[in-house]
Amino acid sequence: MKKDIIILGIESSCDDTSAAVIRDGLLLSNVTASQAVHESYGGVVPELASRAHQQNIVPVVDQALKRAGVGREELSAIAFTRGPGLMGSLLVGVSFAKGLAASLGIPMIDVNHLQGHVLAHFIRTEGEDYCPPTFPFLCLLVSGGNSQIVKVNAYNDMEIIGQTIDDAAGEAIDKAAKVMGLGYPGGPVIDRLARQGNPDAYQFSKPHIPGYNYSFSGLKTSFLYNLRDWVKDDPDFIEHHKEDLAASYEKAVVDTLMNKLRLAARDLGIRQVAVAGGVSANTGLRNAFHEYAKRYRWQVYIPKFGYTTDNAAMIAITGYFKFQDRDFCPMEAPAYSRVTMK
Questions:
Q1: What would you report as the CA-atom Rg of the chain, rounded to the nearest whole angstrom?
Q2: With the CA atoms of 191, 192, 198 and 202 taken in that order, what torsion angle do they form, in degrees rounded to the nearest 10?
Q3: Which of 70, 147, 234, 298 is the most exposed place for a label (fewest CB within 10 A)?
Q4: Dist. CA 16–CA 116, nearest whole Å
Q5: Using CA atoms, how far apart are residues 92 and 85, in angstroms rounded to an integer?
C-alpha cells in the first residue's frame, strides 16, 4: 500500500510565523502568527521580528499539527523557507526545521520564498474547486520587496522576464501611505480609501522603461513633490483629498504593472495569467485582472486572500512537488537573505 506524503511547511521570512500541513497535495492546516509590535515603528524591525519568531514557532507548529490531526512521526519531510528574507527571521525557521528533521530522521526541503508565492495557485483544499493554471503561464509577482513578471514553465522552471530596476510596487504604495500619515502597513489603508475616491482626480508621472522591466522611484518622487506643493497652498490638503489621492496613486501603480504584463502576454502568446504576492490582495489590481481577462481573453488566476501574504501553505505545496522529485536539502544548507528565483 502506497504511503501518504505528508509535508510540514514552515515560513519565517519576515514578520509572520507560519506552519502548514499538506497530505498528498491537500492542505490540512495553515496557522499564522502575525506581529503587531512593528506598527508603532512604521515598518518591520528585524531584531524584534526574530525575537517574536522564537516565541511563536513552537506553538504555531504545534497548532498546525493538531489541526491537521497529524503526529510528528507521520511526517514525510519538512519544507522551510530558506530565503530570501530577513536573515534573523529566516534563521529561526531554518534552525527549527533542521532540529525537528534531525530528531525525526526525515529529509528537509528548502523552498525559495518567491517560488512559493507563485505556486500558491496549486494549493488544494477540501470541498473547493481545484483549477490551477497549466504550464506555461505568466505570473505577476508583486509584494513589498518584489515586482516581477515570471514565465512559469514548470513548478521548478521559472524565468524572470521583467522586474523592477529600483523600488517594488508594494514599497511604493507603503511609502505613499507613510507620506500621507496613514500608518503602517499602508497598503490596506490605501486600498480602503481608494475605493471611495476618484482614480482620475490627479495625474502622476509614470516611468518609461524599455522591455518588461518596472521602475517606481519616479512615481514616488512625483507623488511626493506634488503633495508638497499642494500642502504648501493648503495645510489640510491631504485630509480633504485623501480618498482621491489614494485612488489616483493606486491607479498609477496598477496601470504601470498591467501595461507591462499585457505586453509580455502579447509577445509570448500566453493567455494564462496569474498574480501572486502581498500586493495581489489589492482590490484595484484584482479588478484590473478581471478587466484585462475580458478585454484580452485571458484566463486569470487570483489567489485567495489568505494566500497573498506570507504563509506556510505555499511553502508546503512547493515542498510536496519537490518531495516527489526527491529534491532534498543537506543539513548544512544556510539561509540566504537575497536572491531572485531559483
A1: 21
A2: -50
A3: 234
A4: 15
A5: 12
The C-alpha cell at 255 is 496601470
Q: What is the CATH number of domain 6-129+307-324?
A: 3.30.420.40
Consecutive 10-residue averages of pLDDT for the chain (342 residues): 91 91 97 67 66 88 97 97 93 95 98 96 92 97 91 97 94 93 89 97 89 94 95 95 97 97 98 96 97 97 92 97 97 85 54
- The phi-psi region of residue 127 (left if phi > 0; otherwise alpha if psi is between -120 and 50; otherwise beta) is left
Beta strands of 188-341 (E only): which ranges?
272-276, 299-301
For 253, the enclosing helix (H) or strand (E) is helix 237-268
Angle of helix 169-179 relative to helix 217-233, nearest 10 degrees, comes to 10
Q: Cβ of 184: how many Cβ atoms within 10 Å?
A: 16
The interaxial angle of helices 169-179 and 187-194, nearest 10 deg, is 80
CATH number listed for the domain at residues 137-304: 3.30.420.40
3-state DSSP call for residue 78? strand
How far is the C-alpha of 161 from the C-alpha of 128, rounded, in Å? Answer: 32
Report the C-alpha gap between 80 and 87 in whole angstroms.
Answer: 14
Residue identified by cell 489567489 is 303
By CB neighbour count within 10 A (0-12 exposed, 13-18 middle, 19+ buried), where does 213 fall?
middle
Task: Read off the C-alpha cell for 270.
Answer: 500566453
How far apart (Å, rounded) are the C-alpha atoms in residues 75 and 16? 23
Kindly report the backbone phi and psi dihedral angles of residue 84, in degrees, each rounded to the nearest multiple of 5, phi listed first: -80, 170
Domains of the chain, residue spans:
6-129+307-324, 137-304
Which residue type sits at 320?
Y
- Asked whether the beta carbons of 93 and 53 are under 8 A apart, the reply is yes
**Assigned C-alpha cell, 67:** 489541526
